[in-house]
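#data-curation
PF: Archiving a pair of folding outputs for the training set. Convention for this channel: one message per protein, sequence first, structure tokens after, nothing in between. First:
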Amino acid sequence: MNPGRQDDHLPAVAVGRFAPSPTGLLHLGSLLAALASYCDTRSRQGLWQLRIDDIDGPRSMPGSADAIQKTLEALGFEWDGPVLWQGRRLDRYREALQYLIDRDLVFACNCSRKSLPRGEIYPGRCRDHTVDTFPLEDHAIRVRLSGIVAFNDAVQGPQTFDLSQDVGDSIVWRRDGLVSYALACAVDDADKVTHVVRGADLLAGTGAQLGIIKALDLTPPEYAHVPVAMDANGDKLSKHSQACPVDESDPLEILQRAWQLLGQQPLPETGSLADFWQRAIPAWQMNRVPRTRQMSV
């Protein structure tokens, strides 16, 4: 069995996921990704997971994980199995890191952010620094990435990344001792998920995740990156920008709005959440989602 993988067999059914970070309340931009993922997975008769990406403790907002779950429940989302928490999978990430260390695919890096060229990929300064033991003190760990990764995004179309030119050597373990989002997300999605539907703001990071998945000798999921919601000022709706949280008082109204923004055909008038989901899931068409990176809402 490949030690990079927990399970030698891919799931027999489609598995989708929604993976918010607990850094704030659920807003319309996040709802677009959740709705698209849910409908895509359920239309395949698949399993849909809720995963809380809580590995970055300093950025987490107390109570937001519970609030996100309650909002999803109020809108009629139902996930299969218990909520998954990245913070409870640290042993799995260490196992994946050890797999990379054993194959000499990583190196120690003590470059400060200020010392690196701004807006450019990592220049490879520390590539000759070996990693013999873990954890390291005051060093990040980077994975050596090279070659080409390509995939056909179900919304954005064909995508190709030259890992040396477009991505560079990505951090897999942070200088502060935390696992990187790139490694955690790559491992979690490759372990169990078959279809990743998420915002197009994460498309640029897909190259690094695919490079890590390749280095771990895992099987990547299929991807679909839906447009990111932008406000009237042209700023991305986000928790950081204090976007208004989803109003749970009229769940049908906000679901219908998200459905329309995703380019789906109008549904017959629905009188309940159950009616909405019964009509929406079989009517879902990924090919109707706008093939743009951004949309005004």
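PF: Second:
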Amino acid sequence: MHPSPWLALMIGNSRLHWAQFADRTLLQTWDTPHLTTISDLHPPITHATPPPVPFSSLPSPSDLWIASVVPQQTQLWQNYPEVRLITLDHLPLLGMYPTFGIDRALAAWGAIVTFGSPVLVIDAGTALTLTGTDAQHRLIGGAILPGLRLQFQSLEQSTAALPLVDWQEPVGLPSRWAMNTPDAIASGILHTVLAGLRDFVNMWWEKFPASAVVMTGGDSELLHHCLITQTPDWAAHLTVEPNLIFWGMRAVRLG
């Protein structure tokens, strides 16, 4: 029997995150911009076309599972054939509140089925979120703050003189006591975020000493590298797993 192909689509705040599966096996992942209209997906795409590719040649889903945090993007898919929309009701995570983000819920469930529980998930995307669950698969709670790029962008957009800093950690962490404006921005944002992450994780480990702490999201590898640079022994206990949300979507599909 040939493995059944299916697609997972996580509609994030900034991009569309795609994954192509054959039954349980993840074949590939890729990102594309948000849609303007569903006609951007014409002509229909087939599983034979390997991404990353333009919308005009994406695979035509015979089995497409979608989760979304952007209602306007979700609406574009309502009449698309064979779409299955994942909501909080599909997840067996206990203690979720009505406005809990489906992206956080899927990442948490993906961490539970992959690493066990309790587990703390740090999702470093457009927003930087922390989500903790206990051994009974119950949501403990978490925190939300602007992601790295959003913090850099907000200073440039909300001030008259501060520049946009595109910091990619090319030569190491910025000096804590910077002598020019771009480095001062990088220092303020990076060192504060890193210190905050260490504080949250240390408090989590006080409560759950044996818990896995898993980082995911677009900036997870960057932040993990920074933490290793600062505190290598401590950061060695963190795990980076970019596909947590897709593991959660796969678990929902498998039931």
